[in-house]
Amino acid sequence: MFLHLGNDVVIPKRDIVAILNVRVENSPVNREFMELARSEKIVQVIADKGKEKSIVLTSNRIYVSPISCSTLKKRAGMLVFNGE
Predict the structure, then answer these.
(1) Which H, E and C letters describe the chain, residue by residue?
(2) Does residue 55 lie within any of the structural domains?
């Protein structure tokens, strides 16, 4: 099965490692991780500037999506453990 991330980007669900709220980038550790990923050119931003809502980690790429993490998790049929 596949998951639509927005802006005509579709990925295999089996490749998904995590779906995170874009606000996790506020953490110093996560900010450093994203900066490193950007320097290695494995981040694909598919959201317009200011419309970023989630970060999808896959086995070989990181996507910044305009679709909320809760919507993506529901579409993927994933379990959510944070009370959503």
Answers:
(1) CEEEEECCEEEEHHHEEEEEEHHHHHCHHHHHHHHHHHHCCCEEECCCCCCCCEEEEECCCEEEECCCHHHHHHHHCCCCCCCC
(2) yes
